[in-house]
Design goal:
By secondary structure, the chain is α+β, with helices and mostly antiparallel strands. It has 18 helices and 19 strands.
Length: 509
Amino acid sequence: MSDEGDLLQEDTTKDEGNETEASGMCKLRRTRKKVSKTHLCPTDVGESGTSNSNDYTRDSTQILTPTQLSSRMKHIKQEMARNHLQFVRFEATDLHGVSRSKSIPAHFFQEKVIHGVFMPRGYLELLPNPKDNEVNHIRATCFNSDIVLMPELSTFRVLPWAERTARVICDTFTVTGEPLLTSPRYIAKRQLRQLQDAGFSLLSAFIYDFCIFAVPEVINSKTLSFPASTLLDNHDQPFMQELVDGLYHTGANVESFSSSTRPGQMEICFLPEFGINSADNAFTLRAGVKEVARKYNYIASFFIETSFCNSGILSHSVWDVGGKRNMFCSSSGMEQLTVTGKKWLAGLLKHSAALSCLMAPAVSCRKRYSKESKDLKDSVPTTWGYNDNSCAFNIKCHGEKGARIENKLGSATANPYLVLAATVAAGLDGLQNSDGALVGPDEGTDLYQSKPSELPLKLQDALVALEEDQCLRQALGETFIRYFVAMKKYELENEETDAERNKFLEYFI
């Protein structure tokens, strides 16, 4: 499929019917993005209460003109005809980062682009295994209401691993046109807009570990594993080749893949991209790897045999708003962060406890924080360092794109949109507020914190840290924080740790 620049260079002369139709599509999409309320009703948030005004920052999605929209639809129709498509999936992320979708017959696609696809709100907000008392627990009143999936047409892709099927990633709105305030993708786009308003852009890429079970050449769990072993990389080459090639055709460019640290465990790295694309790529992987695995009669899991979560690293750097200059890179060429980079890092350190709640959102995810510690503690120090893969925040100053920070707090089960949003919110606070840390001069390497950062080992303590972090509460929205905390408390009260792996294996696969 042609990229956006190619689409807009095509002949945009349309007949009167197409122009009228495109105008109607554009008008409706503007309506979906129109935000006028200053307070929330119970049907908007699940319970009465006043929302922070930041909840209603305008979405950063570009509104296409009727001519642009008509041109985009023309190319999509050509793509659909060329591939003899039968269905198009309208996909949206739920709070766990899992793809929820409705498949539309191809001949209804344009109608659904105009009017959207309706879906029960509970599909995106309820737990993996909803129970009768769940709604009462979260004190919600609107789980049976509908929301509207509105497609972002630039994400339309033919799916190589699904027969005659394409997908389009959607943003979610209430039926009255307001953004769904618990939507992880909306929250991430809003934070990227805040970063842009501050004069910066984000270049980022996710690095994921996942495990393949029931492969033909069984690697026994007691066998030693050798990271990046060529033999292990090649033990099921057709599967990995189909996965990587399929991701490429969906727009998610894989930079490398290799065997990882445990038997059957693989690591996959994406090329860095600006904006929301890195989270979209991670979202695509999380669904794609499961679908390709099923074709080979495998099971792909983000858990490993010991019930630890695989890692989900966000490698990122901050650039000028035009994407020309890496603001983390020193002009001296020395391997160190600039003052801008140090302030960003200080923000990550300052908010690391709350960040960890969103990036390691299950009991098993947090085991990796203390897996090498024999002391019975409630928390461990948040570490950082240069080219030190054991640190929570690893600063790498080598490579084509220059200095970057690897946020290694995350697990592969975390929602990538929330990981991106929370990282940007914490980093922005570091840039804009210097009270949390003192940074040395540009040529120095020291970073001093007024209060050392700690990572809670228990999810309960991390939830408290998230609730008490006023910066993240404001950035991500009171509505989202209130719901997310209630949901996690419900999980802790109703799910046994021993059953957690099976729950996630069934749900996420």
